[in-house]
Every structure is written in C-alpha cells, then in structure tokens.
Amino acid sequence: MKQLTLIIATLLLSLASPLQTLAQKLTGNATYYGNRWHGRRTSSGEPYNKDSMTCAHRTLPFGTLLRVTNPRNGKAVVVRVTDRGPFRKGAIVDLSMAAAKELDIIRQGVAPVEAVAVVNQPVGPQYKTREFPELQLFDFHNGALRSAAELAAQQREERASQLRAAAIKTKEKPSFRILNQHFQTAKANKK
C-alpha cells in the first residue's frame, strides 16, 4: 500500500512539473520579426504572417499561448508559439510585427517584457488575438479555391507522376541516328 501511494505521489509530482514551469513568469527582452520573414515557413511548419499574433520561443511547445506584457506602458497581448528562437542573448521571445505594434515596441526594436503561459485561462477582450484563415488560392485545373498546402501537394503528385512516366519511357532501348558529316577543325579551315 505504501509503495502504491509513493508511486501515485511521484506520478502526480511529475505531471505537475510541466504545468508549474509553464506558469512561471519569464522576464527578459523581446524582439520582433522583420518584414522580410513574412510568408516564410516557421519551425512548426506554418508560414509566418506578420499580421498574426504569434511568437518564437526556444523551448515552449508549439501552440502554447503566452501573455506578453510591456511593463513600461502596461500593454499586453496573447500570442501563440509557432517558431523557435530568439537566439539573441537576453531575449526570451521573438514577436510577430502585429504583436510588437500592440505592445508599442517597434521603435525600440528590443524591449523588456514579461511573459506568462496562459494555462486554461479564458482569453479576455483586453487581449487581442486574431485568427486568420489559411490563404486560399485559385486552382486553374478545376476552377476551385484551395489552400496553399493542398495546391503544393497536388503539384508534387503531378511532378511525381511525370517522373514515373519518364522513367517508364527510358526503360525502352533508345534508338540513335548517326549522321555522316565531316567536321573540320579550326586549323583545317585556315588552310
């Protein structure tokens, strides 16, 4: 019985430790993504959108919500972790352009912030979160709107089928036509 109690207590402590680390207040500097990163793929696989409320953190799991506060003016935003970084000494988060504007740190470039993981807390109206639908592109093959991921998958499949068809054709014995022509060198042309 004592062993069972000890095992249960150990399991409960091990389960509580990730939540405890998520609830800790992180203090340090925040940076933000420049415009050149817009549209590039993040570590989580989704493209970076400068108008979304996202951030990069070195260790927190993707999808973790962080409440980031600027202590100088009291402004706060809730951002979602979608990338890894920042790799600058003293920086704890790398914010999207929209989040940096909301916190009013664009002019500074690097600013001190406080970050706390939002664990089962409702997001209130004071925190601006924006959800953007995935970009839909027009598919000229069938005239429908499709996501960029679906179109890329379709293009990969079409390219793979083209390569398979080319491989089948090359298994046939190639035929050569030899032309009987006399080629002269530059030295022979001078004579």
Structure in words:
The chain contains 4 helices and 8 strands. With 191 residues, it is an alpha+beta fold. Strands 1-5-2-4-3-6 form a 6-stranded mixed β-barrel. It starts with a helix and ends with a helix. The model is unreliable at 16-21 and 121-129 (pLDDT under 50).
Summarize, please.
This protein has 191 residues and is of the alpha+beta class. It contains 4 helices and 8 strands, in the order αβββββαβββαα.
Q: What are the low-pLDDT stretches, counting only 5+ consecutive residues below 50?
A: 16-21, 121-129
How far is the first residue's CA from the last residue's CA?
108 Å
Second rung of CATH, namely the architecture of the domain at 24-117 = Beta Barrel
Mind telling me the CATH class of the domain at 24-117?
Mainly Beta
Order of helices and strands: HEEEEEHEEEHH
* Biggest pleated sheet: 6 strands, mixed, barrel
Give the tally of β-strands: 8
CATH topology title of the domain at 24-117: Barwin-like endoglucanases
Q: What is the tally of helical segments?
A: 4
Can you say what the CATH homologous superfamily of the domain at 24-117 is?
RlpA-like domain
Return the average pLDDT rounded to an integer: 77
> How much strand?
15-25%
Please give the share of residues in helix: 25-40%
Radius of gyration: 28 Å
